[in-house]
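queue> pop job 88
queue> type: inverse folding (structure -> sequence)
queue> payload:
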């Protein structure tokens, strides 16, 4: 009844006036009055409809009409509906802009295809991985732009659960995982994700397993062969059996060293293994490493220690000794008999450097960047003969990285090698602020 009360009250008032005129002046006056009222209502209605039509055509430019009575109610409700629609449109526009900004920020390439496989939209990452430009390629058929046979087969298969692994058409060194996702009315979302690093890690995992298996197989085969020999021939002479036992012990120790290095690497890579900060007396540690080198060398090399700094360092004594000990043992292992091995602790450009210098055969330049890879060997047969596990420099790299340090290798075939463990100045502690643990020679003195 809220809408009808006003027009019905106006109609009742008009009829009441017409009846009064009928009674006072006759039917002609009453009918004339009614005709005038009807004409006024029609003209007012046409005027309000014109105002309404003009406003609806340009609601943002034309002021909303204002009126009283029934038309006022209509205009008010339309304005209210318009404000609601504007608010809803503003929210949708804001949500769409946020989605577009988010999609543009996504590191994966995203391409929207319509039912005819034409490009409707793509984000900036599509240029990086697929060579597509949203402005230039909008409306183009994806099949015309990417014509690789395996990609066309992928589109035809429409197997939305199976991704396609492919090289990027822009950079052949980048591996992509392509996935089709259907949505809307026949549309598809093509997503391309960079999986180069995942493939590299997977390849490293496969190589690691293969290398560990290979490294363990040889000593296990040797030990197993000798065990079978001793079992089949229990009456072997003592000297021959003793030689077999020594070889079995050597190979068992080789497996033990490999497992120890693997456990060390695992511990260094563990997120739960926090770096233990303590004062490391580097001159004293250098003296201990020189003694270790002489013990490993057994007089076959000339070992020298040069201390040009008496600075100590903050870090893990166990880890630093393990890393530097690997550098020292490598120098002894790969330097021919009669060669020189020099250990040096010094300061250089506000950094601290522990250097291991040898006169061995040297390393070709193409091998140096890969020396810290697990099980990487410049000469596999020679490495096995010297008893290396192939994990020493990998351990060195991890220890130095945990201490904010780096490994600098300088070498050339026939000219020997220099391995520098370079520590940042922030870890240095000068002698006036540190306690001496062991005595050491004066600065600049060679030992």
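queue> result:
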């Amino acid at each position: 009844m809220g809408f009808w009360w006003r027009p019905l009250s106006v109609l009742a008032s008009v009829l009441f006036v017409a009846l009064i005129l009928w009674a006072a002046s006759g039917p002609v006056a009453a009918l004339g009055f009614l005709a005038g009222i009807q004409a006024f209502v029609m003209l007012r209605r046409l005027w309000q409809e014109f105002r309404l039509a003009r406003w609806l055509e340009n609601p943002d430019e034309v002021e909303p009409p204002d009126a009283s009575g029934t038309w006022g109610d209509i205009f008010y409700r339309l304005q209210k509906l318009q404000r609601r629609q504007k608010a809803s449109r503003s929210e949708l526009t804001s949500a769409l802009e946020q989605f577009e900004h988010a999609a543009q920020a996504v590191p994966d390439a995203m391409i929207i295809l319509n039912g005819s496989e034409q490009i409707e939209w793509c984000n900036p990452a599509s240029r990086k991985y697929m060579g597509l430009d949203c402005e230039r390629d909008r409306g183009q058929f994806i099949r015309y732009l990417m014509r690789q046979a395996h990609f066309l087969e992928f589109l035809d298969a429409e197997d939305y659960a199976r991704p396609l692994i492919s090289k990027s058409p822009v950079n052949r060194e980048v591996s992509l995982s392509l996935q089709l996702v259907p949505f809307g009315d026949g549309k598809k979302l093509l997503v391309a994700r960079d999986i180069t690093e995942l493939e590299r890690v997977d390849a490293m995992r496969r190589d690691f397993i293969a290398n560990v298996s290979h490294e363990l197989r040889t000593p296990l085969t040797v030990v197993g062969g000798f065990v079978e020999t001793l079992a089949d021939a229990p009456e072997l002479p003592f000297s021959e059996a003793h030689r077999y036992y020594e070889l079995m012990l050597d190979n068992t120790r080789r497996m033990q060293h490999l497992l120890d290095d693997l456990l060390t690497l695992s511990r260094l890579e563990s997120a739960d293994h926090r770096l233990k900060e303590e004062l490391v007396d580097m001159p004293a540690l250098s003296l201990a490493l020189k003694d270790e080198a002489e013990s490993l060398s057994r007089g076959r090399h000339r070992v020298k220690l040069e201390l040009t700094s008496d600075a100590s360092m903050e870090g893990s004594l166990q880890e630093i000794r393990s890393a530097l000990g690997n550098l020292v043992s490598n120098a002894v292992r790969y330097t021919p008999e009669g060669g020189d091995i020099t250990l040096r602790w010094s300061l250089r450009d506000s950094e601290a450097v522990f250097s291991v210098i040898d006169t061995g055969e040297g390393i070709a330049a193409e091998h140096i960047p890969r020396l810290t890879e697990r099980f990487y060997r410049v000469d596999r047969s020679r490495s096995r003969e010297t008893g290396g596990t192939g994990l020493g420099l990998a351990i060195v790299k991890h220890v130095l990285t945990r201490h904010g340090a780096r490994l600098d290798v300088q070498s050339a075939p026939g000219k020997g090698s220099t391995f520098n463990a370079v520590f940042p100045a922030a870890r240095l502690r000068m002698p006036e602020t540190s306690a001496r643990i062991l005595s050491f020679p004066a600065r600049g003195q060679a030992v």
